[in-house]
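hey so u asked for the seq, here:
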Amino acid sequence: MKKLKNEAELLKKAILIAEKYAVNRGYKNFDPTNSAKDKVESLYRLLVNDKLIQPLAIDNEDQPNMKHKLALWIAKQLPEGHALLK
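ran it, structure tokens below
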């Protein structure tokens, strides 16, 4: 897995956008007490279920790979020349 430039910032943006997507789909908001780990896994599974991202292989389903997958997803959604892509 090759690390992206600005991967941490891309992940933050991905979580923010995916949370809004989840709320629009009818899910309730995440509580402030929910850990980032739980958010990442829930949002990853939602996006996989809706076929917006390709699922990881079963043996590769762990937090670092899920975070990377979310960062890749948002990087593809951002317009060309966006500050996070530079």
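The CA atoms of residues 41 and 48 lie 11 Å apart. DSSP finds three helices and no strands in the chain.
lmk if thats what u needed
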